[in-house]
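Fold it.
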Amino acid sequence: MAKQKNDEASWEKLFWKSHKYNERKRLKTGTYLHAFCQHCSKELTKDDILLLDVTSPDDKLGHVELSPFLNIFELRTDIILHEGKELKDIRCPHCNKSLIVLDRNCDLCGSHTAKYLVRISHKKIPFHICLKVGCHWHSLSLEDEEQIILEESDEW
């Protein structure tokens, strides 16, 4: 079996030339994603925290700290957020503009979503998250998914 893997690797080296259309970046669970505001381009991540401003369903203003690591769903906040409730707004702490996306809903629960940019290798790509507290759905655009292989992909 190991010999077959080596044969496949050498076949690819001989015949599959690297090109911008077939180069991919593999993202593993726990990959640190540098996040940026889609409006002001300022970084939202610092150390091991992704910081955003939020408005709760009952109009309380606060801050939320998310894990910047892919598929790590840790959350800390200075206001009470109830599991299963959708945030009214999520904003950039630098420019105070909303990150809510009007034309995209969560594929799992149908809630509204927000979008910020994450840096993968040398480019920034849109990253969508669900606004419902406790929903772990997140997504990249289909075009970007074709450039990136996620750890859970059946492709590998």
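Residues 2-15 form the longest helix (14 residues).
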